[in-house]
Structures are given as structure tokens and as C-alpha cells.
Amino acid sequence: MSVSVGQQEPLGVVDGATLDPPYYFPSYRSTLQRAPSMPLVAARPESAGRTGPVFGEDHVRHEDSDLTRRGAGAPIGERIIVHGRVTDSEGHPVAGQLVELWQANAAGRYAHVVDQHDAPLDPNFTGAGRCLTSSDGSYSFTTVRPGEYPWGNHANAWRPAHLHFSFFGRTFTSRLVTQMYFPGDPLLPLDPMFTSIRDREAAERLIGVFDLDATVESYALGYRFDVVLGPGRGATPIEEEHS
Amino acid sequence: MTLSPTPSQTAGPYVEIGAGWSSDGHLVPPATAGAITLTGTVLDGTGEPVTDAVLEFFQADPAGRYAPEAGGEWSGFARSLTVDAGRYSVTTLKPGRVAIAGATEAPHVSISLFARGLLQRAVTYVYFDDEPEANAADPFFSRLGSRRQERLLARSEPGGYCFDIVLRGEEETPFFVP
């Protein structure tokens, strides 16, 4: 799909080559008073290779990955399966790591006290799930497709439909919180969060891919969202010894 | 083959929905012998408290070992929300000095901050104001300028330490490359 990236905006932080969005992005208004403005300190080199926190089976139950079975009944909305594979930048699977998902309900309302959007809450949908990646780095959630919603950032601002994802990698620096979008969403080129990623190809990797193979017939449509956890910008290359 | 990393997006204002299950701020149970509390307030560039953030703490144990080398129940990880007027709190054990190649790191706790308005996490490291010798011997901390050093020091108080985080402006906390 074609995405028009907005005009260049001044950076609050001198930032080198990175696919991540800048902290300071004025068309996303909340960054104006929250974006750090001073130059970042280069990370401690020891931190890059340091193993990150480890979660296990005692943190995650099997049913936590099915957001449609958290209430007394089924939530309203179109059931979907969102799955993918988490790898490092070498393509190696990131196994046994925590994946968290949170989202609005099918009407575009979060089950949260701060969300006052005039759309119905769903008593059968909390919008939270989690799982551990398998030995091949794969994960899978069953949920409902979230609705778009207005968010007051600018006149007639609507967020594209999206899922919030949190990934823990093997190392402290590979930690990632991001969002998955849906293919063909007309709101994407208008969304300051999506367009805050300057590199169009990088931004488009946040759009889940319709996946007929993951679709369960007569039950749920499938989407695929593969994720690559980088070494982190603080990572220093490690020279491998060759004998 | 090198794959391009997936870019970051903001956690948004409802991160509590996703992170709430693990955000009790207890890196160790509060009844643990020697437990201390690290607390503070997160403020934006206008001095307003940031009430929709989640902070992640990661640190070594009192012997200077990270999980899993630390063994036992030690994860070294905890989360705290800032829904209470921007205040966070983590109950923990004070980390020890960490041995690295040819040197020793001063006791420190890493904090990753996620919130609405942060398109990627903000990362900082907290040191302790009652460890002047260890701080001076830390090969990383000792090279920072005095402004940064001062703003990375948690202040001793009864029962623990206080460390406020200012996201932007004159009093801005030093942040690190994530």
C-alpha cells in the first residue's frame, strides 16, 4: 500500500540511523511535553549483551492467549487469529519469551477508566492477553478485530485499528513495544503514530498480513505479524573469534 | 542474512490493560529482610505528573549477579504503574556492585519507561547517593558530566531511596540510547 509520510519535523534529540520513530514528533501532540530533548547518552556496553528478564510457565496460562474466552460469554466482534514468529535480526527464533497483547474492543473502546469514548464496553472482553513464544519463536492469539476510535489529537482524528504488542527478547536492549495495524486501513496515512516512522518499508512491516492458511474455516480469519527484535542501538558488535 | 528490526510504537494511554497483571512493584516480597523501596514521581515538561506510564526495573541482586546466574527466585525485574499522581514504587533489594571485564560497576537499577507520548521507551539508570566511592570507581558513571551524574543519583530517605524522573526540560533526567 502507499503511505504518504508527512513533512519533515524538527528532531528534539539528535538521532542517528534508526528505524524507530523519533521521540519528538509534533504532529503526535503528546510528544510535545514528554519527548526527551537532550542528547541521549550512549548505552553502557555491558548492558547490550546482558540477558533480559525471564518469564516462565508460572506467569502465563495456556488460556491467556485466547481473548475471546475471558468472560462469561463470547465478546461481540469479528473473531481473528493473530500469529507470527519472533526472531532476532539473524533470523534465529526468540524462544520462550513473553508476548503481551492489549487492545480496544470491536466498538473501539478500551476497558479502562480513562477511555471515555462514547462506544459500548463489552462485559465479555477485557482486551488483554499474553503467551510465551514456542521453541521456533512462534506465538498465536485468538481475539476480536479492534474498532477504530477518535482520539482528539487533531480535528477529526481517528486511530487506525491496531493491536498493542509487547515483546521481551533475550537481551535487555531487544525489548520492544509496538503496534500491529491491519491491511488496507484508510486511516494509516493520516495517523501520526504510524507516519512517525520515516522509513516507509519499516512502517509497513507493522501492518499484519492477511493469512488464509491461518484462517480457521467457519470460525476466524487469520493474520500474520512477524517481528524482528534488533540487538538495540546500544549494542556494540561483538567480534567473534575464529580459530 | 540480516533482518531489519521491527520499529517501536507508543504503548499509549492504556498500557495498564496489558501490563497490569505484573505491575505490583514488588521485585521482592515486601516482607523480605533488607527490602528497600525506590519511589519517585514521573513529570512531563510542564511539571505535570505522568499518570499513564509503566516503568520496568531491572537490576542485579545484592551480590551483583543478574538472573539467571543469581539463582533462586531472583528475577531482577519488576513493574510499577504511575496511576497514583505519577508516583511509582518498587520494593526491592539494593543491588550490589557488578564485576565486569577489568572493572566494577557501581550499584545501579535500570528503568525503562513506556507511556503515551513516548514513541519508543525512555531508558535511564539510577545510582545511589550513598555510594560515592563505588560511583567514582564505575568506569561508565565516572565519565559522565557532573550535571548528568547529579540527576542520576537516587536520594537516601527512610526505608529506601527517592528518584524523580523528568521527561523533558530544564530538569530533564538523562536518558540513554535504548
Verbal overview:
- The complex is a heterodimer of chains A (243) and B (178).
- Chain A is mainly β and 243 residues long.
- In chain A, 6% of the residues lie in helices and 21% in strands.
- Chain A has a domain of 170 residues: Sandwich (Protocatechuate 3,4-Dioxygenase, subunit A), CATH 2.60.130.10.
- The longest helix of chain A is centred in the N-terminal third of the chain and has 5 residues.
- The N and C termini of chain A lie far apart (48 Å).
- Chain B has 178 residues and is mainly beta.
- Chain B has a single domain, classed as Protocatechuate 3,4-Dioxygenase, subunit A.
- Chain B has three helices and eleven strands, in the order H-E-E-E-E-E-E-E-E-H-H-E-E-E.
- In chain B, the strands form two sheets. In chain B, strands 1, 2, 3, 4, 7, 8, 9, 10 and 11 form a nine-stranded mixed β-sheet that branches. Chain B has a two-stranded antiparallel sheet with strand order 5-6.
- In chain B, a hairpin with a 2-residue loop joins strand 9 and strand 10.
- The longest helix of chain B is centred in the last third of the chain and has 6 residues.
- Chain B starts with 14 loop residues before the first helix and ends in a 12-residue tail after the last strand.
- In chain B, 50% of the residues are buried.
- Chains A and B meet through strand 2, strand 8, helix 3 and strand 11 of A and helix 1, strand 7 and strand 8 of B.
